[in-house]
Amino acid sequence: MSAFPPPKLKYKLTLVDIQDRRLARISLWRTCLLITSAICLCLLPTLPYWQIKYPSQIQINGEKLVGKRTIYTALSFDYPQFIWLVNGLNLTRKIQLIPSIETVNITKQIIPPHLIISLQEKKPVAIATYQEKIGFLAIDGQWIDQQFYENINVNSALPKLQVLNYQSRHQDHWKSIYQLISLHPELKITTVQWDENSNLYLYTKIGKVFLGSDLSQLEKQFKIMLKLQNLPSYVDNSKIAYIDLSNPNLNIIQKY
Description:
single chain; about 260 residues; Ubiquitin-like (UB roll); Rossmann fold; 3-stranded mixed β-sheet; 6 helices
């Protein structure tokens, strides 16, 4: 007698084995489904907990001069939202549209659900008039409306430097001008002014200085101003209309 089952019996045994494995898989899936359903039923009452429902769940770090109201308005957050569905990249782009914001980073905190917004503000270095409006200048020459520095009178002193008649076309020169002003505080420059022809005037300790519209020799013009620091000891400032340094090689004092 053969030690191996006949072909028909072997075929039936194979079918039974396949059916047993199929039933085992079905049973496993049913068990997983029941467990998942049970977990979902347990978590269902807690779903509101995982939502951002109030502004108090949005934490803002780094804001000093920019008001929280400005940030919340820019976010235009649609309450409530599940924390895992919040589009952080979209919110970042919205805040970056605020001109007084330099950088922004948004992170999600799951337990408890919070949004954490970390900001770096643009430092205003001068009060500036632009198209008859009052605002501030950043170091890069961007003019920013005063409404975007809501807390500047509360958390920081106003910049001492004033810029009059600022225009967008002056932005290319502003960084160089501000660097030289910062490098030479002894000149006590209080005001930077452009006229309608883009001629530049500086109000300094030696009086009003006319630099002209060609600013390619700024460094040389500042060196001459440094040499003229003792001028008030020899000439009464009240009698000087302005000092013409538009040609650094020819210094002219215009009197009244």
